Amino acid sequence: MNGAIHRPGRVQINAWAGDAPNADDLPARTPFAQVEQGRRGATWLVSAVPADLRDWRHPDVGWGLVLPEDETLPAAARAAADDAPEPIRRLLASRPGSPVLRWKPELGQNYLRRYYPDGRAQDLSIAAPRPGTGEGRMPRYLLIFASPRAIPWAVQYALNMATFVGRLDLEGAALESYVDALIADWSGHRCQPRAPVVWSTDHGQDDITWLMARAVAGDVWRKIEADADLSGRVRLKDAAATRAGLAGALADRAPGLVVTTSHGMTGPLSDAAALKAQLGMPVDANHEPLRLEDLAAWEPSGAIWYAHACCSAGSDERSRYEKLLPADGPVGRTLNGVAAAAGATVAPLPRALLGSASPLRAFVGHVEPTFDWTLRDPATKQVLTHVLSEALYDALYRPDRRTPIGFALRGVFDEAGAFYGAWQDAIEGIDKGQPGMRDWALYRQLVAMDRQTLVVIGDPTVSLPPLS
């Protein structure tokens, strides 16, 4: 909560030296040092063998369901998700002990409300959750079942910083198909983890696609190409990165992992219906957006797709960059136009693929754009995308244990937190009149926002099938 807190005049610590309690007056001025913040408590306060965070079934890790608040229901019914569609209730029953959490606008980006079968309710911190499924805890893995109009993207962004979160916005047969596959862990669906597809457009060195093709797709491909186990791999780039080429590779190889880098379709701004129908679609080497009908011959069969493109995951009713860039400039007009035309929505590509008869496991993409400025350090020019290749190759292809996509992406959100901290340092530099700090503040804020607004569409516990 914001506002005044109780401030004692004297404080005491739980340390005994044999003569008297350790107590002291609380100083009027504090330095707000952060050095000690990241340290763990004494070992006797924690389990001798911490839970593996990849094990979402462990009670100290856990999985939970996030639903919009429904104040017409009794608290016990809210705890049981009685208002959720039958497939979601079936998913909850298949994961016994998993709590249901609720969100409403009054909770902002600060809390989720947890209801208990006995009628009690408790607001749990989003920023500093106590992980697990026990009372007073929030699971590490959370599935938001709601459109971004009902539970805003901003809530998912906030949850990204401390939990492993995904979103599902399907209904009817599409929802039933996805839940059936999720409960069965895609049994009978035959994507090939040994056959990843990497597709990257390149419109020349003056275009951001040139940088993405090297810093994102190229970095992932270097690791995939060096792995002899991934013998079915293929990369389509430059002139070969066409709609037809991508569709053909997907149908021929049935890949377990798909990585695409390109522009995302954000037009025409003058036709809202057309814009929404192709929002975020990868734009190919010929500047043609992928169409859903191009993929008619492909069954996703449990693949995971990472799409580095503007609006590949969806759009919002207002861009988070709205006040950082001129509203009348090209970027401002595009972002404001998309927000006005499409509003808060999940893009058509992930919706279609997750709701197909043989559904995708998860789609990872952006709601906001990526800037070329934010892909590398402005002083050294070093690219800052290694966390993506670590997530998409090092984590997903770990041989010791299958890695959930939510956990695999944790480094991206750790980086967001680091850049938010560096942004605060730059703000302090502005206050001190240090030269260049306004530029550093803007850069660091943009990088942090870029990382934080990467989202998972689908359940965050899904992982690639084992190579064996």
Main traits of this protein?
six-stranded mixed sheet, globular, 468 residues, disordered N terminus, 13 helices, alpha/beta, single chain
Characterize the structure shown.
It is globular, with a radius of gyration of 23 Å. Helices cover 30% and strands 16% of the residues. It has 468 residues and is α/β, with parallel strands linked by helices. Among the domains are: 63-169; 197-408. The strands form four sheets. The chain has a six-stranded mixed sheet with strand order 6-5-4-3-7-8.
**Helix coverage percent:** 25-40%
Strand content: 15-25%
Largest sheet: 6 strands, mixed
Report the uncertain regions. Answer: 1-47
Query: How many beta-strand elements?
Result: 16
Q: Which geometry do the CA atoms define?
A: globular
Mean pLDDT rating: 89
Distance between the termini: 50 Å
Task: Round the Cα radius of gyration to an integer and report it.
Answer: 23 Å
The DSSP helix count reads: 13
Order of helices and strands: EEEHHEEEEHEHEHEHEHEEHEHEHHHHE
Helix- and strand-based class? alpha/beta
**Major β-sheet strand ordering:** 6-5-4-3-7-8
